[in-house]
Every structure is written in C-alpha cells, then in structure tokens.
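To assess whether the prediction recovers the assembly geometry, we first specified each molecular entity separately, as shown.
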Amino acid sequence: MNYQDIEKKWQRIWEDEKRFEVKNKVEGKKNKYILIEFPYPSGKGLHMGHCRSYTAIDAYARKQRLEGYNVMFPFGTDAYGLEAERTAIKEHKKPQDIVARNIKTFQNQVRAIGMSIDWSRTINTCDEDYYKWTQWQFIQFFKAGLAEKRETTVNYCPNCGVLANEEVEDGTCCQCHSETTQKAKAQWVLKMTEYAERLADDLKDTDFMEHIKTSQINWIGKSEGVEVDFDIVGGGKFSIFTTCIETICGITFMVVAPESNLVDSLKDRIQNWNEVENYRRETAKKSEFDRSEMNKDKSGVKLEGVYAVHPLSGKKVPIFIGDFVLAGYGTGAVMAVPTHDQRDFEFAQKYNIDMIQVIDGADVSKCAFEKHDYLGNGCKLINSGEFDGLTVEEAKAAITDKLVKMGVARKKLNFKMRDWVFSRQRYWGEPIPMVYCETCGWVPVPEDQLPVKLPDVESYEPTKDGESPLSLITDWVKTTCPHCGKPAKRETDTMPGWAGSSWYFMRYCDAHNDKEFASREALSSWLPIDLYNGGNEHTTRHLLYARFWNKFLYDQGLSPVSEPFARRISQGLILGSDGKKMSKSAGNGVDPLEVIAKYSADALRVWMSFIGDYFESASWSDEGLKACYKFINKIVSFKDMLVEGEEYSKELEVAMHSAIKKVSQDIDNIKFNTAISALMILSNEVAKVKKINHAEYKTLLTLLNPFAPHITEELWVECGFGASMKDVQWPKYDEKKLVKSEVEIAVQVNSKIVARVNINTQLKQDEILAEIKANENVAKAIEGKTIVKEIYVPGRIANIIAK
RNA sequence: GCUGGUGUGGCGGAAUGGCAGACGCACGGGACUUAAAAUCCCGAGGUGGCAACACCGUGUGGGUUCGACUCCCACCACCAGCACCA
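The predicted structure of the complete assembly is given in tokenized form:
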C-alpha cells in the first residue's frame, strides 16, 4: 500500500469511529481546549501557512490526548467578508454559494492533512443558527448602552460608494480609479474604550507571548494627562488633552483638526476663510493613515483673526488648523510647545512662530528638548512665572492643581485605542438587528424574531450614495416599530467580519444549542481556552475584539471567565523558497495538496514541524520536504529490524529516555523543530545498532505519532502492537537513566581551552578539579602561577583562573 | 513615521551566561550497481599550514563578566501590523 492509501484509510477510520469527538465532561479526565483560529474560506483554499499552524497545533492536541486529557480541538469557518462578495460580483453567483463551495474545499483539505478535528462541533459564521446569536449578542450590547450610532469618517468613492481601507490605493478607488475622499457618516459603534483599562490590566492574568502583550498594551495606549479648557477671544472655548502639562507656559500656538465643528462655528471671525476651506478640501482627500505619523511634512493654516487665551498668562495665542490633528482622537485639538515637542518645533520653524523654553537643561535652538530626555533628570522649570525652579515632576502636580482649582482643567485618562466601528455598507455580513422609528428612535428587533435573515438581492455592490445594497430592497427595509407599531425602517448596514469571530470559540462548546448561544455549563467545562493559536496579524484587532466581547458577556453573567484565552501563541509565516511571501504573482507558491499527492501528508506535517522555530518565519524548500520523506521511510524500514523485547535494551536505553524527555518538553514548549531533530537523533542511534525491540519501536512510533499520525498507526497495527493507537499512552522517561557515567568536558585556563578531559560524573567537584589539574596540558598552563579562582559547571566546562 | 519582530556556515536552522554551528539540506570522497536512482559509510565554519597547530568567526561599534549568539547601551539592515481585508 502506498502512503496516500494508508492516509485515506486512517482518515476514514478516525471519522467512522468518531475518534476525536469529545463530550463536555468525561469521568476521570481533565479537559483541554485547544484552538486554532478558524480560517476565512477564500477561493484559494488551504495554503502552506495554514498547513504549518494546523499540523503543529494538531500535533500538540494529539500529544495531549495520548497523555490522557479530554481534548476538544474544533474547526469552523469565518465566512463573512469582502472577498466572497467580490468573487460573487465577478462570477455572477451568490456569495452564499461561493462560500458553501469554499467551505467544502477547506474541510476536505483539513481532513487531507490528517487533522484530529471534532467534526460534530463545526460552525460557520454565516449559518442562520450561528448568526442568530451574533445578532442576539449585538442587542445585548445595545441594551447595555454599549452600541450607539455615531458620526465617523469613511472612505468614499463617487462611483463605488463607501470603500474599505484595502480598496483605496494612493487616494484612488481600486475598482474605478476615481479619487476618493473622506466623508462623514453615521455608523454603529461598540464602545470598546470603556473596557480599555481592563483590556490592558487583565493581560497580567494571561499567558500570552510577551510581544503579544506588549503590542496590545501599545495599541490600547493608555496615557494619563490633563484636559484643559481654552477660551477664545471674543467668545467660545475648546479643550485640549496633554500629557505634558508642565510645558503649558511654553505654548506659542494651538492646532485644531481641520474638520472640527469649532472651525465652522468661528467662520464669521476667520479672516482667511477661503484658505481654510481649501485646506479642508485637501485634507478630505487624505486617509487617516496618511494624516497620522506617516506624514513627515506637517502642514497647517493659521486662523487669521482668531486667538485662544492662555489660562495662566491670559496672553493671546494663535490658532492653526493642521491635518496631523484628528477630530476623532482626544479632543481634536492640541496645545503646541515647540521647544519641548519635535513635531511642534518643526511646525513653528515652518510658520515662523515664537518659541519659549520652559524646561532648563538643553539647547533648544536646533531641536526640541523632549520629555523622554527631561523626565527623571531633575530638570527645572524656567520662564513659567510662579512655577520657576520646580522640578518637572513637581511642576506637573502643581500646575495641574492650580488649573483644576481654577475650574478650567481636569485629570484625564486618554487611550489611543478607539471605539469599534461596527457598521459596513455591504451585503455579505450579518444584518444589524435594529429598527429605526420616527417616534421611538432605534429599537432592537425582538429576540423571538431573530435571526434577521439576509435577504436575496439582485446586486451586491454598495450603492453610489454610500448605503448598503440592502437599502434598495424596499420590502425588506419597510417594517413596523416593535415598540409602537408605527411604520419604521430596518437598519441596512451589516456587521464587520470581526463580529462572528469574536465569540466563535464559545459556540464550539455547545454548537447545537437552539435555546442560547451556549449553555453556561458547557462554557464552564471548557473555558478558558488552554492554547489559542493564530497569526500575528490578529495580535491587536481580533484578539482585542474577542477579549472585549467576552468581557462584556462576562459582565452580563453570560461568560464564566473574564479572560477567554489562557495562553496565546502565534506562528511565523511560511515564505517561498526565495524568502518572499508566497503568492501567485511571485510564482513561488506551493500547493499542499500536490505535496500530499507526491509525498504524503505525514511528510508534509513532519516538514512543517521541522522547518524552523514555530514562532519565526521560515522559507519553503523542496529539499527539506524530501529529507522528511526520507526520515519517514527510515522509520518504516525499522520494522524489518524488529526483535523481541518488552524493555529498552542497554544499547538504546539512554537514547530512548533522552528522546522521550526532549520530545515531551519540546511539544509542550512549541519547539516542534527540535522535537523532530530529537527523533532523528534517536533514529540515527537505532540505525547504528541495526535492531530495535518491541518496546523501543512502540515508544518511537508513539513519539512520532503526533507529527505523522497515519504511518505510525499503520505500523503499529502491522507490527501487531494493537488494533489501533487509540488507547496508547504517552511514554515516560526516567531522569536517572539520562545521565551518562562518563562525559568529556572542556577545561579552560584563563578562559582559554587547553584540554578536554573525560570525567566520572559521580565524583565530587573537588575530586574532579583535582583530576583536571593533573592533566598534562592543564598543569603546563598553570605552572608557576597562583590559582585565583576555579569554576566548574557540572558536565560541561571547567575554568581555572591563574595569575 | 509609529508599534512589534528578526539578523548565526553555501542554505534551513541548534545552543538554562559555559566546548558556537545540534539536526537537516546542498557539497566532496568512498561502498553497492553494467550504469543511474535509492541506500549505506566517511569528511567538512573561514584563513594559513603536508601536519600538529595557529589566528579569525553569531549584522556593526562599545560595555558588563572568569566566560557573551545569549545581558546592557548606541547604530545599521530586513520583515510584519497600523483600526472598513479578515
């Protein structure tokens, strides 16, 4: 039989006997919930990147099962999204049909690589019995006051309507190449910032990889500062947020976001309104991304004739508009202190604005003296009136205090993280289950009427006026208010793809429940997830959305845990053999199914494990794959060397115990490459002695089983070890059997290697050192010198320092 | 630009602060073969040397240490993400 037939045979057996289906509770077994991010079922099917993480985490799951855990390892698909909609438009098919086709392909491919999935728990986010609960949960957000409709800005194309960021290339529409602009639009928003602090703080209770924690904390971007009100000469006022209140006496200008309502309210008093309008028009063309830090060349326009009043000095301060200030971030206005902020410094130079140094300790004629340089260095204030001579730290407190007492400021926490814009003017998403009534306002669809089904439409393209295609189906839009019964309109926006993926891990726990999204009992038996694996691209958004969603449900008493993921890891990319991202255009792609057909799924799995450190990116190589294929052949060939024996032989004892230890620890620590390497070392030992007994082969096959599940099980049966590997136990090692009685160590004199000496590991340290010093080369090196220090690292190295 | 990450032979990569290069690929030599493939054995970081051996060597420059790929500081290069792709 060839590998392909063997693999298909075992895949069928696993499925027929429901080998990997689990109950929520099994007497005497501990539960483990292992999760890999469900894929977006694109038309391209499973790619190498999927293969790497899927086979790796599958190996982890299989090992845990062999260790006697009740392991849930589910799989599903995140089906809503732009790509299916675009394909639908292109192929003149329904997104529903395209997605159904793609899901089938994905599931077959997941089977083909030998994943140990519990298929009884499979879910798709676009299934009615799934998205019903996504809608239900949205309503809970609304009822709790965490969902509201609010003005935001969107990318807008005059022909194609609202565009995703991805669809805008250099300020033009990727479909029709018209120039795009930023347009204000009312959108549903989930108030995620209300959870910002907890999302950052609670990371301490998780075992996420350090860089993931850091990324999330930076994304949330908590900063403590002061919000200060500034009066405008001739009436009106506005607020700014600053983390550097100590520099307030150095203010020489203010900058307001160009689109700010404040600018409109000052129209009559602004003497250069034309110039302001032109600048606003230019700004509208730029995306937020272009306007933020990306933009090196800060520009602005002075509002002629309008001045703010400095709250401490009472002096007049000019006001500018500048596109680097965003209306939606902070208060949409900033104070500018060119001597102590580099961006302000450059702006002031460009527009010839005064500068006043207020913190002593550096020359500010060439560049600003910024907070990371003056904080904590005992720097003192100057040119700041009554605050002169205070240290920066003292001044921070004193100035805040004074402004608060004056009633013009308050301490405030500010977050970089924004609320979650939850509306899409797209067809292919969950309809937002809300109704707008002239009398009652926004009213949720009654829960017994869920799901609000996605209706059939003729055209999937967004409308030119920027509304969802659903808005064109008048019959669907027209409804009655659930509250007062008067005629009302349905919300026509749909949810973003992130919605369904924010709680899918809960549905796996109770996938067929039609009374609730998942029972508390089912959730309690599995959450938190023991190991959650996904791509680095989800480190901030998906992972924060899902944590936020769960925290909300936790507050509602609907989730048993405040953190859903105990441990989070992310895999590195698989690159083409040229070291570049695999893609059609680069022609460096490799199709997993072709690899399986030519070699085997097991060879592919072993290669994906061996290719390199799981957390780093790695380049594909055909040679590496072939080497793993050869390795499997070698394991198979051992069956011809099989001899009797139910205990490890003397010759292989140390090798067996070392391999068990290394492979066990490496899988637990997600070091699959060195686990395979350890198995290769063991197989080299076996090849050297040219025989292997039953006990040894059983252990070898078990250790390899998580990586090469098909062939190991086939060999197991063939050698008569049992009818299958279903009830096999993960082998144990004995620490005592690992230690070699004699070992060669390097001996250094003054940190330079002078000899290699065989030592008996049973001896005491001074006995060993005495033996070392008796060595001819060592003796010569220390001759006539005084020994200052002797270092001995057991079994590795000795260093004698002599003068 | 900001944030996160990476940098070790010809290549993929190993190394709780302790003999850098495990394991594998490619390569060279040999065995088997009419031959090739497959398989097996041996060799190998670089430079110099017949050799023993010497010197150099983990992106660059400093530092800490008996000892640094590993820790600290500064820099360079590359990769990823940046909120409506998911």
